[in-house]
Amino acid sequence: MIVxxxxxHFDAKGAxxxxxxxxxxxxxxxxxxxxxxxxxxxxxxxxxxxxxxxxLGAQNLYFEDExxxxxxxxxxxxxxxxxxxxxxxxxxxxxxxxxxDELVNKKLKSAIKHLLVPILCVGESLSxxxxxxxxxxxxxxxxxxxxxxxxxxxxxxxxIWAIGSGKVAQPDxxxxxxxxxxxxxxxxxxxxGSANPQNAxxxxxVANVDGFxxxxxxxxxxKFKEIVLSFEKAKGVA
Length: 238
Ligand SMILES: O=C(CO)COP(=O)(O)O
Fold this sequence. Notes:
This protein is of the alpha/beta class.
């Protein structure tokens, strides 16, 4: 599965153009694809992607269904515009917006209640990796974030130091972390962090990489397509 995380990019016209390009380039892809777009553009993208294999996702939600929560968007709302996936606990939300594991857990439960498939992001910072704390950090996140949750949640391993930095994690680093996560929860584990057309084949060759969560390179349909094709080639699904 390959997921685009557009983050806070594009105006309305740009988002629809990017969505249409992805549709043109990738409607015959064999792997599962999802585009996690800014909420404003979801409804129009839903129309664009209908009758294709490209699914729609959001990048965040608030855990209550409705109420006096100015500026927030709920799982119920996302579902009503055709979302099937939602990214939860991205490191940018944890670091910039102060989301803690308790909040992430509530958000996951709300997504599941409304039949959205959550993509839970976990990952260590550079200093945590340098201090050999990677597995302790991941275990702590997984235990707290997934408390009381048995339903299928997709996990994205996103080392914070690799996000948007051009510093991609090495295959052996990814392999051992994905193995650790899969021992904890039997589910798909995606890799995220500077995945691009140049490194996609190497990263896809890591046996327990079940896909990617792609930031920067997903803004360009050609680059996104090259990542998808490399993944299909490496996994023998082309
Ligand atoms: O944060 C990411 C995806 O959620 C990764 O972003 P980049 O692919 O831009 O490094």
